[in-house]
Write a structure and sequence with these properties.
single chain; alpha/beta; 6-stranded parallel beta sheet; 21 helices; 20 strands; binds thiamine diphosphate; binds magnesium ion
């Protein structure tokens, strides 16, 4: 511990951020935390202060930074309005198990509970959205609270820790020491756990490994992949967790997300041993909680998760192991492989089905997004970072690109629209030398596209691909399926996206034909600045697997 002289609450806060190795904060300014901005001024060469245009975008950037680094992304926003705007990113960090520290300016202590200007009780507002919420009442406890926020955000199942900071407290002086960095605790598998797992594996005929959740590192991803390959296991990933194992490994068999391949869903239902590592077994991954029966699955279920609360939440595991994924993957290295001959054909067929998925179905129209993605797959470097958004537009890169470390995939398992653009900006700020590509639908782009200004201001250079079908296509899809021919509330009139990009000082172009995509992408790579490629898509081509016409006709035929 280093003893500081008398410091303001704001300075103590920034000192504790420094002690935790924070190099970047994302914020939208507010008068409620001027003392924090002032303390950040003193360390402006050490902590980058990224000033965003809307707190939702700032929160997504902080979340994506947390996903990418495994360390809490730091967000600073002002009281009521700022905190309300930021909530989408806090909810995403919670659902996505991403470490994040959210600092909110709060009204002065003497004004509490008068419904003072912009006053909100953040313990209540963020109670169900965050992993933990605290409010710091005196400056001498700033280091304690901030340190606690960093511990909570990273320990067990990671998530967002929120701290409300009364503005007068931030100006108060205190002479207290600042602790060293947080040392988050992670559970390890117990001494008998791997022996039991090995017995179950030896008894299996149709095993499936499911990887997911946060917290994976390049090393632990490689370790779990090596375990799968050594035992001949097929590996699926949970919803939007494409980058845990290399999709080019013969072990990888696809993702259990929205629009999962039928063959893979069948495989997961038919397996006799499911080893889920890090995945929450949430609604999307379990295909509406139907992959397994609840509470007692018919498959033998081994569930490994960093949080005890997830084990047995919906599905009772045969063997529940509370362990961090890094700790579990490391322990697997000591487990002698099982002879996988009994399931070699099972794995081979699953891999063949996955590879068949990589080939888009023929389509006669002028813009075949699937073929454009196949072309892009060949052009992306191995360490590229790809971000996606909510909505069907994300289905194209998610199905036809391939991921794996050291590349990264960042997508919202919360299904929050507006994610891809800020996440791509955060990724580019973190890794300026790497290719970053963000994919958003026209609807999703318009939710946070103004953060392009932030990217230009700080020199971030992602390539943003907008798949423009002129509608909230995903909702239109549900609409046609449930209420055919009664389209309402889902059409969008859009700006000229390429011109909009140029107005921000970015590179912008529009692609209307499949064969023009690759050259446009190359020009975007060479632009040396953020680039927007608007791809005009056929609205009828509603997913990678079906058309609106087919859905509508199917719905009418069922009547
Ligand atoms: C913040 C937010 N608002 C609303 C929704 C509901 N929603 C899910 S997908 C979608 C439409 C997405 O439209 P677009 O981005 O254009 O992609 P498309 O489905 O057309 O490919 C909507 C409105 C959501 N997931 N998140
Ligand atoms: Mg759309």
């Amino acid at each position: 511990m280093t003893r500081a002289n008398a410091r303001t609450g704001g300075q103590l806060l920034v000192d504790t951020l420094r002690a935790n190795g924070v190099d970047t904060v994302f914020q939208v300014a507010g008068e409620s935390f001027l003392a924090v901005l002032d303390a950040l001024y003193d360390v402006r060469d050490e902590i980058r202060c990224i000033t965003c245009r809307q707190e939702g975008g700032a929160a997504f950037m902080a979340e994506a930074y947390g996903k990418l680094t495994g360390k809490p992304g730091v967000l600073i926003v002002t009281r009521g309005p700022g905190a309300c705007n930021a909530s989408i990113g806090v909810h995403t960090a919670h659902q996505d198990s991403t470490p994040m520290v959210v600092l909110i300016g709060q009204v002065a202590r003497e004004q509490w509970e008068r419904e003072a200007f912009q006053e909100v009780d953040f313990r209540r507002m963020y109670g169900p959205l965050a992993k933990w919420v605290g409010q710091i009442e005196t400056a001498d406890r700033v280091p304690e609270y901030v340190s606690r926020a960093f511990h909570i955000a990273q320990s067990g199942r990671p998530g967002p820790a929120v701290l409300a900071l009364p503005e007068d407290m931030l100006r108060e002086m205190a002479d207290v020491p600042v602790p060293g960095p947080a040392k988050p605790a992670k559970a390890h598998p117990g001494p008998d756990d791997l022996a039991r797992l090995r017995e179950m594996l030896a008894a299996a005929r149709r095993p499936l490994l499911l990887v997911g959740g946060g917290d994976w590192t390049d090393e632990s991803g490689a370790a779990i992949q090596a375990f799968a390959e050594a035992n001949g296991l097929p590996v699926a990933c949970s919803f939007r967790r494409f980058d845990v194992v290399d999709n080019r490994s013969p072990a990888y068999v696809g993702d259990l997300g929205t629009g999962a391949a039928k063959d893979l869903v069948k495989l997961a239902k038919d397996c006799d041993l499911l080893i889920a590592v890090g995945a929450r077994l949430g609604e999307i991954t379990t295909q509406g909680y139907e992959l397994l029966s609840s509470p007692e699955p018919k498959q033998t279920l081994v569930h490994v998760h960093p949080s005890a609360e997830e084990l047995g939440r919906v599905f009772r595991p045969t063997l529940g192991i509370q362990s961090g994924v890094v700790q579990f993957a490391a322990a697997l290295a000591g487990m002698a492989p099982v002879d996988g001959a009994a399931w070699a054909e099972w794995r081979r067929a699953a891999r063949a089905a996955y590879e068949a998925q990589l080939v888009p179905a023929p389509y006669a129209g002028q813009m075949h997004v699937g073929e454009a993605m196949v072309a892009l797959r060949a052009m992306l470097p191995r360490d590229a970072i790809v971000t996606t958004d909510a909505g069907n537009a994300s289905g194209w890169p998610q199905r036809f690109l391939q991921f794996g470390r050291p590349g990264r995939f960042l997508g919202p398992t919360s299904g929050a629209m507006g994610y891809a653009v800020p996440a791509a900006i955060a990724a580019s700020l973190r890794h300026p030398g790497r290719r970053v590509v963000g994919f958003a639908g026209d609807g999703a782009f318009m939710m946070s596209g103004q953060e392009i200004a932030t990217a230009i201001q700080y020199g971030a250079t992602p390539i943003l691909v907008i798949l423009n079908n002129g509608m909230y296509g995903t909702i239109r899809m549900h609409q046609e399926r449930d209420f055919p021919n009664r389209v309402h509330g889902t059409a969008l009139t859009n700006p000229d996206f390429a011109a909009l990009a140029r107005a921000y000082g970015a590179h912008g172009e529009t692609v209307e034909r499949t064969q023009d995509f690759a050259a446009a992408f190359r020009r975007a790579c060479d632009a040396g600045t953020l680039a927007v490629i608007e791809v005009k898509t056929d609205p009828d081509l509603i997913t990678t697997r079906t058309t609106l016409t087919a859905l509508r006709e199917g719905a009418l035929a069922r009547r």
